[in-house]
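Lab notebook, bench 4. Continuing the backlog of folding jobs that were queued last week. Each job is logged with the same field layout so the records can be merged later without manual cleanup. Today's entry covers Putative HMP/thiamine import ATP-binding protein YkoD, a 566-residue chain. Filled in by technician R.K.

JOB TYPE: sequence-to-structure
TARGET: Putative HMP/thiamine import ATP-binding protein YkoD
LENGTH: 566
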Amino acid sequence: MGTVVFKDFSFKYSNLKEPTLKNINIVINSGEKVLIAGPSGSGKSTLAHCINGLIPFRYKGDIKGTVKVDDVIPQKDGIYKVSEHVGTILQDQDAQFVGLSVGEDVAFIYENNNVVQQEMFRGVDSALEQVNMLNFIKHTPQNLSGGQKQKVAIAGMLASDAPILLFDEPLANLDPASGKKAMEIINEIHKETKKTVIIIEHRIEDVLEHDFNRIIIMNNGEVAADGSPDDILSSNILPDYGLREPLYVEALKKINISILPENKISHIENSIRYKEEVLSAYKNRNIYVKNENKNKMLSIENLSFRYFKDDKYLLNDISFSINEGEILAVLGNNGAGKSTLMKIITGMQKQDKGSIRYQDKSIDKWSIKKRAEIIGYVMQNPNHMITQNMIFDEVAFGMRNFGIPEEEVKRRVEDTLKICGLHKYRKWPVSSLSYGQRKRVTIASILCMHPKILILDEPTAGQDYRNYKEFMTFVDKIKLTGVSIVMITHDMHLALEYADRAVVMSKGKVIAEDSVFNILSNKPILKQADLKSTSISSLAELYGLDSPENFLAYFVNEIKGGESND
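JOB STATUS: finished
OUTPUT FIELD FOLLOWS
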């Protein structure tokens, strides 16, 4: 039990002319742990839907060839029969919840299996405790943060008897420490139960820290590569298909170190063999990105917030500035208050104490609409922003509401969709896009408005590396025009490469404001904020270096192209 077999398999969605999957031949054996990766639109999520039965029962289309899940043929035997063999965590958690409370949702599988009530209660408590969500057992799932929703979904999976566990972007909405914990839980489930584990994920570095048997690379609806992690990492397969290698592998290759499969580089500790070569390239150089004195665009002064008068403050005495033409990363664990703070800045919520000033003018009494003229906000979940059926209309929606002439609307939409890698989809319905592609649609709709301050909540979540680079290259360009950019992100690579400064939040307070290199080399701050050091910091520790921030700065510069900031 726990085997998946695709044989000469193709699938075409009913509303598309070309097949999304073409001639797939894959065998996933019982007990294997497999990573499926590929650029956006490569067909990897469609492949997952074929495994868990959502194709053809939710997503209609034409099927050729066969897919078998153990002895079940999904299109013949029905989705209920498939669900006995495959447990799934969807990328879009809102589409997965069925209970009115967290406890009810986790109990759903137990109830379906007629488990006695006392045993069900024990199972629910145990599952929620494993993901640190027991205190939320009575909360409504829809009111949780994205990361908290993901934890609840994993807790529900722990109750499943299915021999195959399928995770579609399990780390997409988790902070780094929670993502590591989630992967540890998945790894533990795999070791203890010997179940087949299939993971679809963009955050390859975070996933590959935990042993995998194979990596399957999808591209243009076909299997582009299928091999062990060491085979894949020793080649250039990942960057060739628009995917990001682990940061330490990028760094080693950047200084022309030759990596062979037998070097077992998928385990970072094996990088000790390259210590002399790496340190010779590094030469203890001091490389810092200098923070120039810039004009303050927005100032947050002693801001505090709570939902109800007798509640504790969710945000407590927050102060920092956003400077003209900079990229500021806002880092911190799920529930630290980052998204709440941004809602206050945009006027969606009203602070209890403190003030917000734009170019020395108080905006405390400004309406949401007036703030929207200068502040653009892209939410974490694209489903909370999209209102139009067609992609072009969604991107044009805000400009049309502000009365911008249609000729100008068309020009801006066309230009922005090209930059965001969506131009070829401009006449598609939004419903045909993947979660990551819908995210880019919402970003495009705000960029079209030409804001002075652009707030991006997890801007690269669900995006492949090629689109990530294209989008961030554009963000770098608009920064040069004087636009201030705030990124709420769990992606430490993103913060390292593109942020001029970082603010770190924990439990509703700002606990650090510094360069990203210093912050990600500061273990007490990382621990307090549930952040995770990058693999280059791990290399510095492996090599026994005293100044990991310098090492980090040097190799990030090398990876970005060697621009010197001496």
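OBSERVATION: The longest strand covers residues 4-13.
SIGNED: R.K.
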